[in-house]
């Protein structure tokens, strides 16, 4: 596993710690999250039972706007979008149909979308958000932590916002102050306040 800036698995059970270190490394590598996660600290104690993972993301991907992958060419009667990258074409069409109606969105070929000039307006189209990759990144991080957590730890609490995330799981009810008693100290070990 390429090194994260900080990666620690902590457990009173040395064999379990080594196993979870390998499991976490494999899951992060398989889900291609190593590039996205900067710091990760996992605490596992099977006797309590508790699993706590806390970390920081390297950077949040920015929103994808029409201008990022298409040229907007306004004309007198129509606005022509020249698509340079088809990656976001499907979500673009969904957004255009929702905003202007399917009957007003013409796609003569896979690299061209045409809209009536009266509807499309001036600069709004270039700034239209088509996709937000951070949404899928959030889901992928939580999915990875669910996969890393011990089987049967179904009582859980999760948080992800901006660059910080944590995931707490147990077989038992989680105490109300779990964030203050277990999660905040883990962030402190990484030099971060929650």
UniProtKB/TrEMBL annotation:
InterPro entries: Methan_mark_17. It comes from the Archaea. This is Methanogenesis marker 17 protein. It comes from Methanoculleus oceani.
